[in-house]
């Protein structure tokens, strides 16, 4: 039935528009013809079909949605909105699905996306660096799949400014991490992830915002930022899930495993 109703609803761009028009208020054939900019014959054909499906009924010369027709209209609207969001943000679906393959596309409604391309290959990293440089957060929580010199500089500056920091990293990242033995242990916590395969995403949580980064073969290719509370809460939940699978590492271990050791 879902397939049959879908075919009926989306077989013409006018049919959903007709339902949406009647959702606002009842209308007669003439009014619907003017609103839909379609011929009267076409409008009447759609009305007849919707009546056969019991989505529309005629009362006192005007057409109006039945309860099931109103429900179909709302469901179709939700579907179209989610599909539109996915189409607009197709480049960010992959890194987000790596975090949680059941993520809600509606979370992408209010995000800022920076994507690397041939003209600006470093755009995501520049966006992230600028955002971190301007943040007034008191704490940082993050998941890092790599430790680049720039990321070390960015987070080093935050630590120097007194920002309490906790980072989750895979074992191989720990082995390449720069020494942080000068940082007070009360300010910086490093945790090693029990991760059987390389991560293809990064996460940063500030007091007010959430960032998700996408990686391709170790290269930072997309940065997603949002201050939307729902998006941040979702990212925070994912972070806590990974944190539960991590183990705290003494800072001395970073110095021992670091590249200068």
Fold and architecture overview:
- This protein has helices at 2-10, 13-24, 29-36, 40-52, 67-88, 90-99, 123-134, 149-160, 171-175, 229-243, 251-257; strands at residues 56-59, 62-65, 112-115, 139-143, 164-170, 188-193, 201-205, 210-216, 219-226, 246-249.
- It is of the alpha+beta class.
- The chain folds into 2 domains: 2-82, Orthogonal Bundle (Arc Repressor Mutant, subunit A), CATH 1.10.10.10; 90-257, 2-Layer Sandwich (Endonuclease, Chain A), CATH 3.30.870.
- A hairpin with a 2-residue loop joins strand 1 and strand 2 (62-65).
- The longest helix has 22 residues, at 67-88.
- The relative contact order is 0.11.
- The model has no long low-confidence stretch (mean pLDDT 85).
Please sum up the structure shown:
By secondary structure, the chain is an alpha+beta fold.
What descriptors fit this protein?
Arc Repressor Mutant, subunit A; Endonuclease, Chain A; alpha+beta; 261 residues
List the helices and strands and how they pair.
Elements: H1 2-10, H2 13-24, H3 29-36, H4 40-52, E1 56-59, E2 62-65, H5 67-88, H6 90-99, E3 112-115, H7 123-134, E4 139-143, H8 149-160, E5 164-170, H9 171-175, E6 188-193, E7 201-205, E8 210-216, E9 219-226, H10 229-243, E10 246-249, H11 251-257
Parallel strand pairs: 4-5, 5-6
Antiparallel strand pairs: 1-2, 3-9, 4-7, 6-10, 7-8, 8-9
Question: Cα-atom Rg, whole angstroms?
Answer: 26 Å
Tally of individual helices: 11
| Biggest beta-sheet profile | 8 strands, mixed
Q: Might you state the CATH topology name of the largest domain? A: Endonuclease, Chain A
Which of globular, elongated, flat, extended, rod-shaped describes the shape? elongated
Structural class: alpha+beta
List the helices and strands in order.
Answer: HHHHEEHHEHEHEHEEEEHEH
Q: What is the class of the largest domain in the CATH system? A: Alpha Beta
Cα distance spanning the termini: 66 Å
């Amino acid at each position: 039935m879902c397939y049959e109703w879908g075919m009926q609803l989306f077989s013409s761009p006018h049919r959903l528009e007709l339902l949406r028009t009647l959702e606002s208020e009842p209308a007669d054939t003439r009014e619907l013809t003017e609103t839909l900019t379609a011929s009267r014959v076409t409008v009447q054909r759609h009305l007849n079909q919707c009546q056969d499906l019991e989505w529309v009924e005629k009362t006192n010369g005007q057409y109006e949605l039945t309860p099931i027709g109103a429900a179909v209209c709302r469901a179709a609207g939700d579907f179209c909105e989610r599909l539109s969001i996915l189409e607009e943000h197709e480049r960010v679906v992959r890194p987000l699905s790596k975090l949680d393959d059941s993520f809600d596309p509606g979370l992408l409604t209010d995000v800022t996306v920076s994507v690397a391309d041939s003209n600006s290959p470093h755009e995501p990293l520049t966006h992230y660096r600028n955002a971190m440089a301007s943040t007034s957060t008191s704490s940082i929580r993050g998941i890092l799949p790599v430790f680049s010199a720039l990321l070390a500089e960015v987070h080093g500056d935050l630590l120097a400014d007194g920002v309490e920091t906790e980072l989750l990293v895979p074992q191989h990242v720990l082995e390449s991490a720069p020494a942080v033995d000068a940082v007070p242990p009360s300010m910086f916590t490093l945790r090693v992830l029990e991760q059987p395969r390389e991560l293809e995403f990064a996460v940063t949580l500030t007091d007010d915002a959430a960032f998700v980064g996408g990686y391709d073969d170790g290269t930072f290719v997309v940065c997603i930022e949002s201050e939307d509370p729902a998006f941040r809460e979702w990212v925070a939940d994912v972070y806590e899930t990974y944190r539960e699978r991590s183990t705290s590492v003494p800072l001395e271990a970073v110095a021992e495993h670091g590249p200068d050791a």
